[in-house]
Amino acid sequence: MTKDKFEQIDEQVEPQEQSTQPGSEEQMQPEPIYDDKDYVGSGKLNGKVALITGGDSGIGRAVAVAYAKEGANIAIAYLDEHEDADETLKAIESYGVKGVKFATDISDVENCNQLVVDVISEFGQLNILVNNAAKQFPQEDFLAISPDQLMETFSTNIFSMFYLTQAALPHMQKGDSIINTSSVTAYQGSPGLIDYSSTKGAITSFTRSLSANLAHQGIRVNSVAPGPIWTPLIPSTFDSEKVQKHGQNTLLERRGQPSELAPAYVYLASKDSTYVTGQAIHINGGDFISS
């Protein structure tokens, strides 16, 4: 049986590690597939403006590129991975739309407020908010999770969603969309990522609760729950042995590529999903099957 492009790139992954989070895409061997040339846009997001956190690499980059293919102008927020951000902007603009980058730490409420101000100043509107940025710090010993680690994980992964959504909502209207990146760990847990999994569980509840709160305004809120996806967070989190085996325990026996998630984010942002809110789309290679 001929192997597809995703299977082929999975076999090329070498043992590797990165020393800092959230990691750099350009250092990965091989680099993830973020622009699937088989995916052709059809104008589903023409005239829209999207803000994507963690948009410089990984899932965020793939979503930004897919949105650009669909005609949206894009603002990406990232921490300090400037080379990755420049590469993402280049990819976005190659599809004839406008892309702008903002380097900021979204764990701080004032930074989130300023980020939305800057996006509105640049584009005059905001229609799609993708809360995607995250950090994770493995600890096999539960007692080793320090208060500082706990605060950093929660501040980046869930507090920022509150901050950004509160800042963005006054600029959003009926038909606009909020999409949160959850995780398979929210549903099956992870013994070595207890604080991270807890934030992802919080994101799931945040999504369900906020969707009910905003339903009368016609603003939809949904989530995507990825499984093992080949992003910079993997080599910057795990040792080289775990990196090489990443995703092998799924039903599809491989890791996923960021481009394999992007169409779900397009669906949730577009008119294709006008009757969908408070939901989670599970993209995990069969790692977890939702009841």
Question: Which features would summarize this protein structure in a list?
Answer:
alpha/beta, Rossmann fold, about 290 residues
Q: What's the tally of helices? A: 9
SSE ordering: HEHEHEHEHEHHEHHE
CATH level-3 fold name: Rossmann fold
Calculate the mean pLDDT score and round it.
95
Q: Total strand count, please? A: 7
The largest sheet, given as strand count, sense and whether it forms a barrel, is: 7 strands, parallel
Total tally of structural domains: 1
Radius of gyration: 18 Å
Structural class: alpha/beta
CATH superfamily: NAD(P)-binding Rossmann-like Domain
Shape: globular
* CATH class designation: Alpha Beta
Strand order of the largest sheet: 3-2-1-4-5-6-7
Helix content: 25-40%
GO molecular function: oxidoreductase activity, acting on CH-OH group of donors
InterPro entries: NAD(P)-bd_dom_sf, Sc_DH/Rdtase_CS, SDR_fam
Protein name: NAD(P)-dependent oxidoreductase
Organism: Planococcus donghaensis
Describe the structure.
Keywords: Oxidoreductase. GO terms for molecular function: oxidoreductase activity, acting on CH-OH group of donors. One of its GO terms (biological process) is bile acid metabolic process. Belongs to the short-chain dehydrogenases/reductases (SDR) family. With about 290 residues, the chain is α/β, with parallel strands linked by helices. It has a single domain (about 45-285), classed as 3-Layer(aba) Sandwich (Rossmann fold). The protein contains 9 helices and 7 strands, in the order αβαβαβαβαβααβααβ. The protein has a 7-stranded parallel beta sheet, sandwiched between helices. α3 links the parallel β2 and β3 (about 100-105). α2 (about 60-70) packs parallel to α3 (about 80-95). The radius of gyration is 18 Å and the shape is globular.
